[in-house]
Structure formats: structure tokens, C-alpha cells
Fold this protein.
Amino acid sequence: MKRGRLRVYLGAAPGVGKTYAMLAEAHRRRARGTDVVVGYVETHGRPLTVERLAGLETVPRRTVEYRGTAFTELDTGAVIARRPLVVLVDELAHTNVPGSRHARRWQDVEEILDAGIDVISTVNVQHLESVNDVVEQITGVPQRETVPDEVVRRADQVELVDMTPEALRRRMAHGNVYAPEKIDAALGNYFRVGNLTALRELALLWLAGKVDDQLDRYRADHGIHGAWETRERVVVALTGGPEGDTLVRRAARVAAKSKGADLLAVHVLPGDGLTGTDPAHLVRQRALVEDLGGTYHQVVGDDIPTALLDFARGVNATQLVLGASRRGRAAQIFSRGVGVTTTALSGPIDVHLVTHEEVSKGRRARPARGGLTRWRRAAGFALAAALLPLLTLVLHHLQGEFSLPSDILLFLVVVIGVALVGGLYPALPTAVSGSLLLNFYFTPPLERFTISERENLLALVVYVVVAVVVSAVVDLNYRRSREAARTRTEAEVLSALAGGVLRGHSTPRDILDDLRRTFGLTAVTLLERGPEAAGTLGTHGDPDRWRIVSTAGGPPCTAPKAGETEIPLDEHLVLVLRGRTLRAEDRRVLEAFAAHAAVALRQQRLTAEAERARPLAEADRVRTALLNAVGHDLRTPLSSAKAAVDSLRSPDVTWIEEDRNELVDTAAESLTRLDRLVTDLLDLSRLQAGALGVASRPLAVEDVVPRALASLEHLDAAGVRVRISGGLPEVSADPALLQRVVANLVANAVRHNPPGEPVTVTASVHADRVELRVIDRGPGIPASERDAVFAPFQRLDDRDNTTGVGLGLALSRGLTEAMGGTLLPEETPGGGLTMVVTLRTGGSRDPEPRRSVLEGHGKPGGR
């Protein structure tokens, strides 16, 4: 029986419209005459979903009793007995009630598919097994119902039902997803913008991976080996030469012109593990590729053009960037080179040959491959000097018992033994000496350097050839083994260096210390020319003086000549090593360490310059704003108070009691406002100076909010609605500062809220954090201007100077951060602004949640 086809609607979160899309597809197929039934659809009481379900045949559900309660589940047997062409089964990851036919709903679906019935189902990305732990880290909510990824990947069709986080939150605010009493809690917990954005990205990435798998499978099934330009991918080939920087930048420009094409860099390592590349160049070029948004890869291949094209076809590349040949014209006569060969074999892949400064300068010679040690060569010569006379004496004594071929084989054994011990150099004279001894003592006519028979002459010539070849192979194998071991060691050292940089161990001192330990040195010192150069960028200094920038190990070197080895980095920097003289082949790794140290030094100095400049710029900005505030906003209440007092003191006017009281109230109100403004200015200055005292302790949010509301004068109790349930964990905060933050945020929200709309204050817990939200329905703030509202002396679109100098939000954020929390703005679904205060928990939940006094409106007791 032919297996049924599975179609899955994938969503990033509940409420995006998966079930609605599934029902719309069912109606479309039903209108075409297809036999479609509903096996299981969960409407969650959503009116639009219930309306869409009408008109479709539904297979009755199966009732299962569990612990005295009746549950309804998908009746798999009834669906198979009904044998429709298509059945709708919602919530693929659902866990069935114990006692059901299968433990999981996706197992029911598998049985229905095996019966030849097509299935349309739905699943959210958080229920996929592979991303389940990631979703829990993002949302803080564990997902206990999961479905194996392979079940969904095997689906014949997977369609993403997508919706932006803002649109989904608006749907929720309009009551299209959850009941009204659950909306605020959902928006403040699982359905936060950050959570929804991350879940949406997970869904898109997972689906993109499935699409790539489908494309690869299709190309493999149909024998398609050429690149399909479904997406531009630019591959740049790096040789490890100095021209690599030019190639990477050119490839990045090609990718940018192709509207965001992927950039991939590849370096081909020879199959024998030997390489003549400069590790310092590759390290720098890899960093450049990653800075430009690309990825770096290494492949192994004996034939470079074939390896490059195999990699390019494997990643479905559309363009390949190569450097023009560095070989001279004479060398190009005998071999076309990598660029020409790759172009001839590239097929549909476009190849760009880029010129550079190294063209026709010749390839850099590979580092000398070290042969056997002098001790082993000496041992080979000694072995030859001992074995040849001894073997000759023994065979001469046994002459007549062995034939000439046997004698030749025995001499060949001696030559191979010498080659194994001492390599090529002692084996060659051993082979020649052996041939002379064979000729003189064992080849007729005896004891003469003549050969009477051609067969004997051939045997001796073959003996010499075999001895030379075997000796050469042994020597070459040893050389390659040593070079391979050295290359492996270099790779491990460079990998450890790169790993330290990635882990953040990238200060010059860390890199120098790693270098000292790697090579067993006494001291490693980074010197810079000129006494003032260590503290500034771009200075030249005294050419005859050196300054220590960083050092590791014993007494530092004060000049380049004070060490055994020096590595110049540029005109002003030099790395000096002391402890032992290093070999020339070690210089490649040394240059890699030196390059990392130079980059780390520059980054350190740029960071220091930026840190020094930031307080100055901030202080200058605050100073300018403060002068403006003092010159304008502070003068307003001061002028009002002074005018009221001057009027009262005027001897020319006789004030009645009512006018006198009004002037006194005006003066008092102006002075109160002036006192509040000065207090805010002083607190802001203490925050910026780090001198504000914070006494954090565990406290309950539901105890702080009523005190904050009570401190607000002229607050309409009906204008603030508080929804804070009991049982929240205590937070670590300063009670006075937190009360002030809440009061500032509520006052700001009330000021911008439209008449008749209450400001809502809610609180919820997420992992080890408690989030306090102040929600208004005002005009809101564009995303591009949300950071600006926290700058001191800012009042966006506010010309009312009586409301203060614009310190409320700046001070609130500063106070929150001083307590170890954060204050961030969010868009209120349906319009408005939500201020979110996040604080660390400082206690545990109550064992029995108590009813909050804040489950009402406004101040305590108000409703």
C-alpha cells in the first residue's frame, strides 16, 4: 500500500495562524471534491478558528478515562476505518493521555500515513526536539511535548506560517488569541518581543536547513553536479601568500555587488600535510574574512584545482576568486598553473583571476625539509664500515656454497639496513662499495674488476639501482614524517593561539606568555621605538631609544640586541626573544604570535583612547545641557517664587486674604518644584560620579508599588490599574530608589496617557529575574528615538517647561542600573509605550501565595 503524504504547517509561536491556514487548505481541497475530514482540531475558543471549522466533516474523538477525569483524543482507528483521502490532525507534538493507542500524537499520524491516508498537521518550532533546549534558554519555559525532527523533515511539504512579533502581539491585545484576563500575563512573559523574534529566527533557520536538504537530495537523485544559482556564493582561494588580503577584499566587493551574497574563503592543504604557506598571513587573512562577514574553511587535496572546484560545487558556489599566478614565465611553459586549470574545469562557476603585486615574482620556496640527524648518519656509516667487510669475509670463506644472486641479495640486505639507520647518504656509498666487492671477489673472473658474463653485469646493475631507490625512499619517508610532525605541531600551536584569542585571552601579555611557554624561552619582550610611543598612537619617537610595551618571563630585554632573536613587526615595533636560539623554520609560528600581539596592542590602545574620550564627551554634553537647564528650566520656578514674594512685600498694594493665600501657594509650589529639580540634578551628578549610595536588600515588589503611587501628588486613583499577583519572589533592590523609579515611570505614563485610559502596572517572574511593567496607551515613541528619551535634559515633542528639565527617565534608568537591574522601553501592543524594569531576585517564592493588596486600581484599597 502506498504511504500517505504529510503536510506540516510550522509556526514560531501559538497564535500565528497555523490551524487557521490548515482549515483554509481543507476548505480549498473540499471545494475541489477531495474527501477531507477533521481528525482532531483544537480551536482554543478562538472565534475565527471555530467559524473556519464549520462545514467540515469531523470524525468523533475517542474518550479516555484517566484518574477519574474524561479526556478526548484522536481516534486513530476510526480515522483509518473511515478511509478519507485527507485528514486534519492538529498539534503534532501533543502527548496523549495514558491509555491511548499511542503515547504521542505523531505516532498516531505515522500509523495513519502507513494506511495510505494523507495528513495535514501543525507544529510550533519550540516543540522540535533539536531546538527544545534552546527555546527553554530563550523563554525560560520548558517544553515537555516534543516531536523528533526527523518526523517533520520526512514531511512531503513543510509550510512556514509567519507573522512579525509586533503583529502577533497586536492580535493578542485585540483578544484574538487568549482570553482578556490572560493577555497581560502572556504579553509580559512568553510573548515578549525578544522571545518572539528569537523563535521566529529559529523557525526560519530550521526551515532553511530543510530546504537545503531537499535541494541537495534532488540534485543527487537527478545526478546534477553543476552549481545552481539559487543564491550567490562567492568563494575566494587563499594560498597563504601576501596577496591574500587583496583577494579577500576583492571577493568581498564582488559579494557586496551581488546583493548580499555569501563569502567563503578556502585554503587547500596538500594531502601529505606539508605546506609552504606563512601561518601569519593565514591568521591575518582569516580574521579579515570574518570581519567582512565571511567564513573560513580548510580542505585537503593533492590536486589543488580539483580540490577547489569540489569545495565550490559542494557549497553550491556561483563565483570563484583566484589570484593570478606567482610563477615566472618559464615555469608557466611547463605547467598551465592553478588559475588556468581551474578556469578550464570550472563549468558554470564564474572564475575571477585577480592581479596583485606578487604576480610573476616566483613562488616562495618551501621551507627546507629536514633530513636525518647527524648522529643517525654517522651510525649508518659505522654500520656500513662494519657489515661490508664482515659479510665479504663470511661469503669469501663460504665461496662455492652460494651463487652470485644469493650474494647480491645478502649485500642488498646490508644496504637496506644502512638506509634504515642512516638514510640516503651512507646508503649510496654502501651500495657502490658493495658492487665493487661483489665484482672483485664473487664475479668471474675473481679478484679482478672485470665481468665476463653479461648476466652478471645486469645483476650488479640491478643491485645498485634497487639499493639506490630503496635508500632514497627511506630517506624521503623520514623527511616527510619529520615535516608532517612539524606541521602538525605548528597547527596545534596556532590552533591554541587562535583559541586563546577567541576565549578573550588576547592581551599582549597573554600572547607573549603563551609564546614563552611554547618555545621554552626565558623572556619575551615587545619593544616600541621612542619613549613616548607606548602611550599614544601614530608617534615616531626617538629612533635610538626603545620602550618596553609588554613583557613575559624573566628580566625583559631593553633593546633588540639584548635577545637572541628579534621579529620586526613594523617601523616602530619589534618582538625580542631571549633564552635560546630558535631555528629558521620556527620563524613562521613566531611571526603568527607577533602578528597577534601587534593586533592586540593596537586594540588595547584604541580601547583605552575610546575610554578616555567617552567621559570627556559625556561630561561636555552634560555640562552644556546643565547650563541650558539652569539658564531656562530652573529660572522659571525661581522667577515665579520671586515674583510672588515681591508682590507680597510690596507696600503699595493691600492684599485680601484670598489673594495673599494664592500668592503664598504659588511661591510654595514653585519652590517645591525647584527643590525637586535640584535634587534630581544632584542625584544625576552622583550617579555619573559613582558616588550614589545604594543599600540593596530583599524586598517585595507588591510592597513598593503602593508607596510609590502614594508619593505622587494629585494622582487620580482611577488613572492607574495595578495587576500584581501575590507570590512573586523578592527582588534585590534599594526600597527608596525603587520607589522613586516606579513613581517617575508612572508619572511619565500618566502624563502621556490619553484621557479615560488607565495606566497599567504589572509584574512577573522570568528565571532569576522579576519584570515590573508600566504600560500606557499614549502616542508611543519610534524605535529610532527610544534611546534618546533616557538622555538627560530630553523631552521629546514636549514644549511644556513646567514638567521639569527632562531628568525623570534618565534618572530612573541610572537608579535601576545602580541596583543591578535594567530599564528598557517596549512598544505596547495596540499602541503606546511599556517601560520594563528588570531586577534580580533576592529571595524565594512564598510557599503559599498570599493575595495581593494591589489587585485593584490605583492606591491601596482603591478599586
